[in-house]
Amino acid sequence: MNVKEEILRLTKELEHHNYQYYVLDDPSIPDFEYDRMLRRLEELEAEYPELASPLSPTRRVGGEALSQFQKVQHTVPMDSLQDVFSYEELREFDERVRNTVKEPLYTVEPKIDGLSVSLEYVDGRFFRGVTRGDGAVGEDVTENLKTVYSIPMTLTDAPAHLIVRGEVFMPKAVFHKLNAEREEQGEALLANPRNAAAGSLRQLDPKIAAKRQLDILVFNLQLAEGKSFSSHAETLDYLRSLRFKVIPYKLVMDMDTAEAEIASLNENREQFSYDIDGAVMKLDSLSERMLLGSTSKYPRWAAAYKYPPEIKPTVVEDIVVQVGRTGVLTPKAVVRPVRLAGTTVTNATLHNQDFITQKDLRIGDTVLIRKAGEIIPEVLEVDFSKRPEGAVPYLLPSVCPVCGAPVLRDEDGVAVRCTGAECPAQLIRNISHFVSRDAMDIDGMGSAIVEQLISAGFVSSPADLYFLNWAEVEKLDRMGAQSAKNLREAVEQSKQNDLSKLLFAFGIRQVGAKAAKVLSMEFGSLDRLMAATEEELTQVRDIGAITAAGLVRWFKSEQSQRMIERLREAGVNFDNQFKLEDERFKGKTFVLTGALSLFTRDEATAQIEKFGGKASSSVSKKTTYVVAGENAGSKLKKANELGIPVLTEEEFLAMIQ
After folding, report:
1. Which of 627, 628, 625, 629 is nearest to 645 (CA)?
2. What beta strand segments (E) does 74-188 contain?
3. What is the C-alpha separation between 61 and 83, in angstroms, rounded?
4. How far is CA 139 from its chain centroid?
5. Which residue from 205, 138, 23 is spatially nearest to 129, judged by alpha carbons?
6. Which residue out of 111, 517, 614, 635 is catalytically annotated?
7. CATH number for the domain whose boundaries are 73-306
8. What does the pLDDT read at residue 578?
């Protein structure tokens, strides 16, 4: 088999397995076998780029970032539907249909709360994907849609020109996982899966969209050149035969059955992997649709029943405070159990202290809560007429409820955080950060092992990693003698790291890898840095007043001091080891872009810093040079627009030799 044939075979097999896994939810091979084929295809495409297809399964992880989305005129307008909010309005819709159609047959489908897109295929190949926009003009999001595995890239026996409409959504399980990761990183949580899906699909970098694991359900055939159909249900079945993931539907002939199906969808909405906010009722016959036609805004043959947001009263029985992995204190109302959107609610989010103060919410209050599009129910308002006597304003505690360390409000936000370096609530996140590559770089110690060590009671502080009983570690699940030996060697090796890596590993707010390197070089040792005053710290390049105050506060903490002394006892290096060879790049800022072949990004950055320069991630008027590798994108374009000198790798190499 020649290379071209092997690439075609692998592409076809991988697309088949994508369909089995993401559309049918019935994988037929183990993950490692799929990964093996994908790696083989990547290798062949890298060696023979002229044979690589833009629709290759390897593109599912995201292509080059875009500078903007292009506007596209829809070949078939993407109309919206008229919303109805009661069964009475729905019956009025049915009566209007029956004025023209004697015995209408309808489909009832769940109304997915996502983002509507059109998928266009030419000669059986995915050509373009466009957002709905205003219905007439949308945005080209083709590259991001290629990352949605349930969208087929090629079709068999398809019309020469095919356009289908679907709803892109973020599965609820993915949404929960994404929010957990955002919380761990200290980022703002996303309100609901629809907002998350819309934001993901409009990312200019497809690699970000790929990480969001979006999905799609196709619900309409817009255009099928040379094909004719008599009913909507027939078109959906046809699209399913083409291997699309198609919306479920039910055929109904009367309003009693229709209302029962709509109610059933609402009652069972928690069981769906996606959010729904209503049900769509469509006339099934395509010829009868033509008779009814459309108004200037909506088709007369369909209606979207919107489920009313459920709002119910309950009583706040208590307010509890949770401490997240990033140390943020989050208040939560414990409420008298109440049934909302198919589930029993016992808690409601209170967001932060500002939210509680603005609502003037107190323990014992009667409140209205809702769960409409939100994953976690929230308090809408307080019924002050039912406030019990003696209810007092609520304030978050001044110390962490988990470890007792002082709490501090973010200078630039509403979050209140625990300042404890050894707070148990933050332990997984703190140790995972401590061992990460840019920190102490303990190879092989991923989050799963960190959680095992914590669960076994082996560590309660990052410093405990240097006092592990390795004979006991060896007994952990899926560890073994060799793995434990490798991990022990990595832990020992990390003791020799430069001070800058240790400073970054501490996880002090505002002290990133670059600031840690600057501080390490300026003070030379951890002891000198610990003795520095806020005034002395603010004299250091790139260190502002907020960072200086945070450093002094962190070093004064009892938990921090205890951890530092344990690290000193373990023999961890506290001194700066990074020396400038000379200052030829002093005052100069470099930006790296494109695929580098002579260096990795980290190696090139290290060379720049070794000679006193600074590596930046974005191009601006302050940029001195842009070093461009292959396939350099928007950064190279901006450098040319600003007249910034662009270096090849060879020219950059000559500068450092």
Report:
1. 625
2. 83-84, 106-112, 115-122, 125-131, 137-139, 161-169
3. 37
4. 21
5. 138
6. 111
7. 3.30.470.30
8. 78
The separation between CA 16 and the C-alpha centre of its own chain, rounded to angstroms, equals: 27
Longest dimension (CA), the chain: 89
Euclidean distance between CA atoms 319 and 61, whole angstroms = 43
Scan for tokens 């920190």, then name that residue.
Answer: 439
Q: Are strands 137-139 and 125-131 parallel, antiparallel or unpaired?
A: unpaired
Separation of alpha carbons 239 and 26, rounded Å: 19
Record the tokens describing residue 407, joined without a space: 């709490």
Per-block mean pLDDT, blocks of 10 residues, the chain (657 long): 82 82 71 75 81 79 67 92 93 96 96 93 94 90 91 93 96 85 68 82 83 93 96 97 96 96 89 91 96 90 89 94 87 91 82 93 94 71 94 95 91 85 90 93 90 93 96 88 92 96 92 90 94 94 88 94 96 88 85 85 85 86 90 85 91 88
CA distance 633 to 189: 31
Question: Tokens at residue 458, please?
Answer: 């082996």
Which architecture characterizes domain 311-386 according to CATH?
A: Beta Barrel (2.40)
Task: Give me the CATH topology for the region 3-61.
Answer: Helix Hairpins (1.10.287)
Indicate the DSSP class of residue 301.
T
Measured CA to CA in angstroms, residue 236 lies from 217, 284, 302 at distances of 11, 11, 16
In this structure, what DSSP letter does residue 23 have?
A: I
For the chain, domain boundaries: 3-61, 73-306, 311-386, 420-579, 589-656
Tokens 């990547």 locate to: 42
Q: What's the CATH class of domain 420-579?
A: mainly alpha
How many Cα atoms occupy the beta-carbon half-sphere of 166 within 13 Å?
25
For residue 600, what are the contacts with CB-CB under 8 A and spacing of at least 6?
Answer: none
Q: For domain 589-656, is the CATH number 3.40.50.10190?
A: yes
pLDDT at 373: 52
Q: What is the DSSP letter of 28?
A: -
The span from the CA of 91 to the CA of 87, in Å, is 6
Secondary structure in 3-state letters for 253-296: CCHHHHHHHHHHHHHCHHHCCCCEEEEEEEECEHHHHHHHCECC
| pLDDT for the residue 291 | 95
Contacts of 294 (CB under 8 A, 6+ apart): 79, 300
Is 111 annotated as catalytic? yes
What residue type is assigned to position 376 of the chain?
A: I
How far apart (Å, rounded) are the C-alpha atoms in residues 219 and 247? Answer: 5
